Amino acid sequence: xxxxxxxxxxxxxxxxxxxxxxxxxxxxxxxxxxxxxxxxxxxxxxxxxxxxxxxxxxxxxxxxxxxxxxxxxxxxxxxxxxxxxxxxxxxxxxxxxxxxxxxxxxxxxxxxxxxxxxxxxxxxxxxxx
Length: 129
Ligand SMILES: [Zn+2]
Known about the structure:
By secondary structure, the chain is mostly helical. It contains 3 helices and no strands. Helix 2 packs antiparallel against helix 3.
């Protein structure tokens, strides 16, 4: 297992963006679409306790809604009926969002791992009586 300080933030973020373990770069970081692995299969580093919360959806909304959506207004689709353009852009932006979201999630998990921010751990409720 490598020390956190040996891996630069940029390297960890890029490995996370590629869906790889930020520690070794070999094992998979995600076990399903949005769920990180408990431990890396290659190096054993633990990721199960890291919670990225709303960071990935937030980044996806910023990218799709504020970067790619304005580009859509630059494309001339006057030759196409309005319902066709709406359907086309809806499919494009849905696909773009679905493609960005898991990459953003794994990148934020990698960043949280590198910065040693374990993320939110729920507080157990205690009966006051
Ligand atoms: Zn690893």
